[in-house]
Amino acid sequence: MSEFEIRQLQERIDAGVLLAQKRLIEKTKRENGYLVVMHDGKIVHLSADELK
Question: Where along the chain do its domains lie?
Answer without folding.
Answer: 3-50
